[in-house]
Write a structure and sequence with these properties.
The complex is a heterodimer of chains A (about 80) and B (about 230). By secondary structure, chain A is of the alpha+beta class. Chain A is built from two helices and three strands. Chain B has a nine-stranded mixed sheet, sandwiched between helices. In chain B, strands 5-8 form a two-stranded antiparallel ribbon. Classes of the chains: A alpha+beta (about 80), B alpha/beta (about 230).
């Protein structure tokens, strides 16, 4: 059966994130005060054939390690949709 | 004669200059489609600048899986010459042929301008015709050229002398010291043997004196003479 998987890929903490900085600045200009630590990554959603959520998560982890995230600069979080 | 293959991925855009720069240096060059699975007898391969696969996901992340890449991995493993220029450097990092990654420029802007870089090694396939310490001015054109690696990797690169090119500031120059925020001002690196090299600046765009400077020409004369020596040996 198909499992729906949500993956978030985020620049690693400590690495400069120019996109996050620019958006943080823009939010300040708009009047949103007190906004800090904006970081911008990617959200990837996919369906994968797997019998269990754990199985889907294991496959998604391999996808992240091989392609979806760069292990040098990015971290990732995997969530499998509850059914 | 030294034969250099220049790979064209979907979205490459510096292959013509690269092909011409090799010829101007006295070699022969051939365009190689990314769907090929063999280098066709080439002595060296250049991964040119551009935006392979539209920089989707990450620069170089998709190109890494192109059919030609297996032949390039094998060529590199056998000690063959592999040169990554700009997007090609990004591909080599994604393919783990060189360590680290190229991230979005710290200034949050695409940077297209001349920069001053210092030759840190003159025993690589691309720098033999330069002197160590020589500073040349060649262009960059990238949005994602900020070299990053973990501290241990950076220290290892320095200890092994694998930083090939470094951004420097020249007194009186209007070029920025470090145009993209690269760690340790790194503009290019190589493997231990100096046979796999990757760098962000574009020597192929300034390899002909009619353009006002041929500061990048010797990258290609270095390569062509090295290949000729290899072929004779």
């Amino acid at each position: 059966m198909n499992q729906r998987v949500h993956i978030r890929v985020i620049p690693r903490t400590g690495l400069l994130d120019p996109q996050g900085q620019a958006v943080e600045h823009a939010l300040g200009v708009l009047g949103f005060s007190g906004v800090t630590d904006v970081r911008i990554g990617k959200a990837i959603e996919l369906s994968v054939a797997a019998d269990t959520p754990a199985g889907a998560e294991a496959v998604a982890r391999r996808m992240c390690e091989q392609l979806l995230a760069n292990p040098v600069t990015e971290d990732f979080v995997i969530e499998v949709e509850a059914r | 004669m030294s034969r250099v293959a220049v790979v064209r991925f979907p979205g490459s855009n510096c292959e013509t200059e690269s092909l011409a720069a090799v010829v101007r240096a006295g070699g022969t060059s051939v365009l190689l489609d990314y769907r090929e699975t063999s280098l066709g007898g080439a002595d060296a391969v250049i991964l040119p600048g551009g935006f392979s696969y539209g920089d989707y996901l990450r620069s170089g992340a998709i190109a890494r899986f192109a059919p030609i890449m297996q032949a390039i991995q094998a060529h590199a493993a056998a000690g063959g010459a592999v040169i990554g220029i700009c997007n090609g450097f990004q591909v080599l990092c994604e393919a783990h042929l060189l360590p680290g990654a190229l991230l979005r420029n710290a200034q949050q802007r695409f940077a297209a301008r001349p920069v001053d870089v210092r030759i840190e090694r003159s025993d690589t396939i691309c720098t033999a015709d330069y002197q160590v310490g020589e500073v040349i001015r060649i262009p960059i054109a990238h949005g994602e050229g900020r070299y990053a690696a973990d501290e241990a990797t950076l220290q290892q690169l320095e200890a092994d002398g694998r930083v090939m090119l470094r951004y420097v500031s020249v007194p009186g120059s209007d070029a920025p010291h470090n145009p993209n925020g690269s760690a340790r001002d790194i503009a290019g690196i190589c493997n231990a043997a100096g046979t796999v090299v990757g760098f962000m600046p574009h020597p192929e765009r300034l390899a002909e004196s009619a353009l006002g400077s041929d500061a990048g020409h010797r990258f290609f004369t270095s390569l062509v003479s090295r290949l000729a020596v290899g072929a004779a040996a």
